[in-house]
């Protein structure tokens, strides 16, 4: 039977020496091996394997100067020792640990003497500020306030000049060309202010701090220190603008959704952090609180739409914006804009129109009459539609349908060519005479379109009754036509009020008044008219009844104010003409002259007929004679020839000249 005894980690490592010593000059290079420490462990296997470490509870300097190889126990220099020479040795505590579980430990000490090679070779080293460390100080602090304390040490003996440290700033503080804000105490290293600090003027300072000893030659070290000036809430927010600047202009489309950002304004506060936060207010110009303003994440003022904006009702807002600190809220509103106050600015918001409305006629139904003798291309009515949208195109008019209706014969037909409408002006006129349409009426559908699209169109119905003059009455004004045309719109309104009934009035023409004898009165005007009730034409008899039943005093005053002297039938009524005696005498004389002329003409015709017969007879005898005798004797006696000559002389002025010259000459 073989019994194997298993090892147990019951032995701690043991150093060969409890104290090791070494002497090295301060100028040895790094990685220089000083000494090898050795420890053994009686256990076997892992329990007997030993590792070495420097115990960091010893003097802090040896820990940073030396290192030990964990496997071999070789102690070496890991940092330059220049200036670290001293009479007292550096003590390094080394720990030996086995690999057992749990591990066992033992210790030894290494005493290292670093010898000085040269005088004052120790360079001061900074404890504060550390690399990258910064200092902070509030602006506006009292001059002389402590900012920071610099701390440094010298590895040389502090009891000697080589080891004593003093402080200064690298800049030449004695220069009279500069005003330095900071000063450092050479002995304590305390940096204090020596001038007021204004963060808005300069928010940080960078300086080089020098720590030096008093050895020969002196040694010094440098460290950069940045001092940041902390903000104090000592600046008021304001707008960066000239005193007499123009308002900020913002364009906004109407009907933008509530919550839309209409525009942004920016003010500045030279403070930082929470001290630079700005609150924005609308002082005036915000009718009905249409807009609100809020601070954005980047400290700007966002104008927000709070209510519906209709560009047809208002086209511009001029807002006065004011800024302040949150700690000083604005409580008074409505003050006028003060251009000298840079905490205020003006914003003009121009509302841009969008085409969101359809055109609309002044009235959707027109009822009027036209006389049968109306001339071609007469202006019957002016149709007018409007679109409140400024961005819409000009309205164009067109006729969609024309239907003629004659109730007496139940005739109903489309006649598209009878009327036309001017596309631009909306004037409705006739293309042909209307006499054949008397007794009927036209239903006309007129379209008004502002722009393409089914929503940009409106329709109106025009009903035109074709009337004879006997279906109309006329007002007789003691005014000239041009004066009457100017007062007709007012007269129509006044008559409706005076009658006090739901009627409408159509006046058709303004002409010089024609008397019953057909003569014109150039100082008076007649205007044919009709009354309508519920878009139906009222007969003349009923019209007279309505006008007579109206409040007599009111209508009488109306007629007096507008110089209405009579109401008559529009159809001309002519009386039998009575002739004067002078006119009768003239007619009788004219009749006698006509009768005498007629008798004279008959006489001439008879005489001419007799003459022609005699001439034919004479020609016959002459031809016979010439045939028988070959001569040319006279046919008439001298007495007959003389009578013919006398007759010619007597009748030559009364006969036609051509006819007279055509008579033959008897030879």
UniProtKB/TrEMBL annotation:
Transmembrane segments: 584-608
Cellular component GO terms held in the UniProt record: plasma membrane
CDD domains the UniProt entry points to: Cadherin_repeat
Superkingdom of origin: Eukaryota
Record flagged with keyword Transmembrane: yes
Subcellular localization, as worded in the UniProt entry: Membrane
Main location: membrane
Membrane topology, record value: Single-pass membrane protein
Residue ranges of domain Cadherin in the record: 16-126, 137-239, 244-361, 362-491
Pfam families noted in UniProt: Cadherin (PF00028)
Keywords carried by this UniProt record: Calcium, Cell adhesion, Disulfide bond, EGF-like domain, Glycoprotein, Membrane, Repeat, Signal, Transmembrane, Transmembrane helix
UniProt record, GO biological process: animal organ development; developmental growth; epithelial cell differentiation; establishment of planar polarity; establishment or maintenance of cell polarity; homophilic cell adhesion via plasma membrane adhesion molecules; open tracheal system development
GO molecular function term, any single one: calcium ion binding
Name by which UniProt lists this protein: Cadherin-23
């Amino acid at each position: 039977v073989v019994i194997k005894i298993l090892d147990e980690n019951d032995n701690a490592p043991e150093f060969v020496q409890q104290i090791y010593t070494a002497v090295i000059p301060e100028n040895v290079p790094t990685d220089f091996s000083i000494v090898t420490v050795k420890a053994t462990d009686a256990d076997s296997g892992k329990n007997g394997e030993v590792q070495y470490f420097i115990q960091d509870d010893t003097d802090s300097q040896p820990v940073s100067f030396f290192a030990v190889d964990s496997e071999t126990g070789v102690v070496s220099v890991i940092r330059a020792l220049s200036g670290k020479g001293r009479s007292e040795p550096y003590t390094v505590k080394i720990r030996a640990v086995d690999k057992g579980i749990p591990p066992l430990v033992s210790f030894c000490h290494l005493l290292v003497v670093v010898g000085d090679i040269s005088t004052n070779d120790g360079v001061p080293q900074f404890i504060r500020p550390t690399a990258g460390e910064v200092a902070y100080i509030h602006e506006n602090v009292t001059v002389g306030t402590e900012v920071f304390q610099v701390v440094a040490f010298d590895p040389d003996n502090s009891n000697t000049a080589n080891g004593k440290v003093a402080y200064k700033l690298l800049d030449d503080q004695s220069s009279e060309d500069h005003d330095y804000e900071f000063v450092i105490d050479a002995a304590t290293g305390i940096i204090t202010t020596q001038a007021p600090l204004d963060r808005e003027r300069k928010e940080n300072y960078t300086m080089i701090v020098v720590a030096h000893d008093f050895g020969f030659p002196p040694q010094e070290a440098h460290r950069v220190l940045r001092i940041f000036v902390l903000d104090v809430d000592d600046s008021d927010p304001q707008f960066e603008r000239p005193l007499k600047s123009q308002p900020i202009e913002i364009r906004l489309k109407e009907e933008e959704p509530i919550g839309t950002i209409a525009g942004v304004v920016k003010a500045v506060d030279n403070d930082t952090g929470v001290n630079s936060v700005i609150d924005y207010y609308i002082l005036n110009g915000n009718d009905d609180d249409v807009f609100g303003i809020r601070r954005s994440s980047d400290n700007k003022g966002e104008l927000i739409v709070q209510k519906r904006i209709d560009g047809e009702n208002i086209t511009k807002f001029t807002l006065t914006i004011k800024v302040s600190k949150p700690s000083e809220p604005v409580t008074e509103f409505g003050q006028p804009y003060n251009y000298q106050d840079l905490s205020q600015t003006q914003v003009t918001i121009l509302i841009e129109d969008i085409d969101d409305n359809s055109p609309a006629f002044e009235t959707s139904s027109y009822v009027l009459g036209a006389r049968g003798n109306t001339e071609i291309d007469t202006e019957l009515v002016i149709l007018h539609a409007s679109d409140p949208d400024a961005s819409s195109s000009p309205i164009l008019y067109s006729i969609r349908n024309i239907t003629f209706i004659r109730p007496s014969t139940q005739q109903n037909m489309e006649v598209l060519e009878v009327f036309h409408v001017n596309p631009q002006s909306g004037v409705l006129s006739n293309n042909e005479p209307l006499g054949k349409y008397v007794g009927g009426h036209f239903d006309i559908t007129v379209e008004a379109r502002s722009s393409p699209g089914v929503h940009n169109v409106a329709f109106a119905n025009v009903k035109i009754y074709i009337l004879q003059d006997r279906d109309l009455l006329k007002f007789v004004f003691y005014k000239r036509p041009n004066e009457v045309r100017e007062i007709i719109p007012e007269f129509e309104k006044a008559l409706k009020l005076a009658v006090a009934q739901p009627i409408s009035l159509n006046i058709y023409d303004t002409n010089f008044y024609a008397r019953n004898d057909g003569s014109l009165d150039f100082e008076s005007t007649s205007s044919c008219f009709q009354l309508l009730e519920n878009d139906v034409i009222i007969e003349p008899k009923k019209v007279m009844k309505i006008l007579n039943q109206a409040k007599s005093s009111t209508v009488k005053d109306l007629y007096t104010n507008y110089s209405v002297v009579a109401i008559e039938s529009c159809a001309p009524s002519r009386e039998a003409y009575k002739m004067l005696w002078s006119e009768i005498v003239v007619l009788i004389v004219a009749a006698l002259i006509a009768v005498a002329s007629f008798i004279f003409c008959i006489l001439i015709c008879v005489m001419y007929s007799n003459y022609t017969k005699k001439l034919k007879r004479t020609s016959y005898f002459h031809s016979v004679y010439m045939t028988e005798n070959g001569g040319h004797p006279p046919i008439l006696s001298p007495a007959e020839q003389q009578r013919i000559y006398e007759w010619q002389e007597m009748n030559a002025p009364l006969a036609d000249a051509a006819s007279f010259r055509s008579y033959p000459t008897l030879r």
